[in-house]
Amino acid sequence: MRIGVDLGGTKIEIIALDDDGATVLRRRVQTPVADYAGTLRTIAELVQSVQLQIGTSATVGIATPGALSPQNGLLRNSNSIVLNGKPLDQDITNALGQPVRLENDANCLAISEAADGAGAGCRVVFGAILGTGVGGGIVVDGKILTGLNRIGGEWGHNPLPWATESEHPGYECYCGKCGCIETFLSGAGLTREYFSRSQKDLPAEQIVAAELAGDPHAVGALATYKHRLARSLAAVINILDPDVVVLGGGISNIGMLYVGLPELIAEHAFSDGIRTRVVRADHGDSSGVRGAAWLWPIKT
């Protein structure tokens, strides 16, 4: 039996899987706002209650924004900034009284989809999260490629490729730089693009509804978003050349983004043709929490 926890900025999700990957139970609670101690306590209480409910101890994996620094073991690069600078894995281990494994949430998306999702059977899988932030994870031959500096797949903090004059210099990012892909392709980036056209502040899901209703501002905002997504993925494909790109996060549920996307990517990729599939995650917003559970090997 294995337990996965997805620590998000607004919610904490927990799942229990049997050794075949079948879901035994799943639960969500709100993340304590800007409260590190409260976050640790919530995770510990969730895991303990789930283990009581399933009647056995289980391995525990944690998916989190950001990654542990190989220099000092502290979390860094999280857009949930209350987590930054903390020994999150050790603190959760101490709170639970059992070891945990912790990985970036995009890495967990990628390993989940490579194991038994949209990337199953593929040698190289790039998993991309499009939501509150923009993250990425790489799986090669069934293993997460974290890299020497533990920043493998972090495409969201590269500059927007082939930026137009109107996209320069871009927007300030929480990472301290300007013009990052994340500032354009996050949910907030879509909201900002719509506001620039309409002077109305709408969340992503309402922009989608407005596009379906024929709102020209929403149509334009989503077309621009798709073009930026295509350019950004073309840059990834030029370097990694994966078998498949799997999209997760709330923005990945916008169906129109997939229509014509391969052709837009091909306009910018360094190839005479692109066979890389770009698909929605099979496990949807459960991919991160399932991937966290898969961080531990099956005991034999």
Description:
With 300 residues, the chain is an alpha/beta fold. The protein has two domains: 114 residues, Nucleotidyltransferase, domain 5 (2-Layer Sandwich); 161 residues, ATPase, nucleotide binding domain (Nucleotidyltransferase, domain 5), CATH 3.30.420. 35% of the residues lie in helices and 20% in strands. It is built from nine helices and twelve strands. The strands form three sheets. A five-stranded mixed β-sheet has the order 3-2-1-4-7. The chain is globular, with a radius of gyration of 19 Å.
Task: Compute the number of structural domains.
Answer: 2
Distance between the termini: 12 Å
- Major sheet: size, sense and barrel closure? 5 strands, mixed
Structural class: alpha/beta
Q: How would you name the CATH homologous superfamily of the largest domain?
A: ATPase, nucleotide binding domain
The side-by-side strand order for the widest beta sheet comes to: 3-2-1-4-7
**CATH topology-level fold name of the largest domain:** Nucleotidyltransferase, domain 5
From the alpha carbons, calculate the radius of gyration and give it in angstroms. Answer: 19 Å
Q: What overall form do the CA principal axes indicate? A: globular
Round the mean pLDDT to the nearest integer and report it. 94
User: What's the helical proportion of residues?
Assistant: 25-40%
Report strand %. Answer: 15-25%
Q: Residue ranges: pLDDT <50 for 5 or more in a row? A: none
Q: Quickly count the helices.
A: 9
- The CATH architecture of the largest domain: 2-Layer Sandwich
**What is the CATH class of the largest domain?**
Alpha Beta
